[in-house]
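pls design
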């Protein structure tokens, strides 16, 4: 039996990881540390056996030390982060505080409890990061690998790059047993509806415009969150200390293509289930119109990276990682989850 501390475990990816780990490692116990800001939702992990939610800030080093000591934590899985690029442009301070200072707080506590006190306890500090630290790719550039130089272009990605460097430094300087994973764009259940996929899905249901930045041809690699959790599990269990692993979905698509898939899948769902028209009468699909009639092009955001792509050769070769879903399959599952969990997302919608 293992004891895990999952930071940000009431957020989107963290909560999915908690569900995944409970299913695959039912004898382990999980302590979730989450500040419960706008994107942290206790409902995401409510009722899970062997999981305890502690409301608190990762910048509170004393609290982290207390949890590590009292609960005999052997593994930290660090998801807690400010992650929305648009918010980082208008308010970068919170991103530096949480992503850089917060990560350093966790590292200090881990070093003190696991190394400085001389317990010799086997441990693992796993840090979850993003492909955005690598910057932007041209249309013909090779995909990001673990050796791609960092070139962050937003306050968000710069703060995540800083946290990545701190994690690496604590391994090389102090000997802390760390791993890092850099993932591509996640989607799936429990995603806060300011991100592209849940935002556009729900806008389709409520007949609201689908605002597309620029020409809509910014390219991302799309990763279903459960595939991501599977990749993280493999890194935690079998990743080499001090190493970084890229985890991608193998679904490199322009935003416009993603939006078209969202619209088409929503339209098919309404055609297959007439009750949806009664539930969501404002949806174009309820009125005999295509959902893509809501598409609206808006001014591109500042510093908008043109293309991301992940080369996951290292994770495949060393860990046996492979994504299990195409985007079409993953989004169909995601739509089904949102349609079946209206009570979860309705309170999060803006008026």
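designed seq:
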């Amino acid at each position: 039996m293992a004891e895990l501390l999952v930071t940000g475990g009431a957020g989107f990816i963290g909560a999915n990881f908690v569900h995944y780990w409970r299913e695959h490692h039912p004898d382990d116990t999980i302590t979730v540390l989450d500040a419960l800001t706008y994107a942290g939702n206790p409902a995401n992990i409510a009722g899970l056996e062997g999981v305890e939610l502690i409301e608190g800030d990762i910048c509170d080093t004393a609290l982290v030390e207390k949890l590590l000591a009292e609960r005999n934590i052997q593994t930290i899985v660090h998801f807690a982060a400010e992650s929305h690029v648009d918010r980082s442009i208008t308010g970068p301070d919170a991103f530096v505080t949480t992503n850089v200072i917060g990560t350093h707080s966790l590292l200090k506590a881990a070093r003190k409890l696991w190394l400085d006190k001389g317990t010799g306890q086997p441990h693992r500090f796993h840090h979850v990061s993003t492909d955005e630290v690598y910057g932007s790719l041209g249309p013909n550039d090779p995909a990001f690998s673990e050796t791609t130089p960092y070139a962050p272009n937003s306050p968000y990605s710069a703060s995540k790059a800083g946290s990545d460097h701190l994690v690496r430094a604590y391994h090389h300087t102090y000997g802390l047993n760390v791993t890092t994973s850099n993932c591509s764009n996640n989607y799936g259940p429990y995603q806060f509806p300011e991100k592209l996929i849940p935002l556009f899905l729900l806008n389709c249901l409520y007949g609201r415009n689908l605002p597309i930045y620029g020409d809509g041809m910014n390219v991302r690699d799309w990763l279903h969150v459960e595939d991501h959790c599977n990749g993280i599990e493999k890194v935690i269990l079998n990743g080499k200390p001090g190493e970084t692993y890229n985890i991608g979905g193998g679904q490199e698509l322009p935003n416009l293509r993603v939006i078209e898939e969202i619209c088409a899948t929503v339209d098919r769902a309404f055609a297959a289930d007439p009750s949806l028209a009664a539930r969501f009468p404002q949806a174009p699909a309820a009125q005999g119109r295509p959902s893509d009639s809501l598409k609206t092009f808006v001014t591109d955001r500042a510093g908008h990276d043109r293309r991301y792509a992940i080369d996951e050769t290292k994770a495949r070769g060393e860990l046996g990682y492979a994504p299990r879903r195409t985007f079409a399959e993953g989004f169909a599952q995601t739509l089904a989850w949102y349609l079946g969990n209206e009570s979860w997302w309705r309170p999060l919608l803006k008026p």
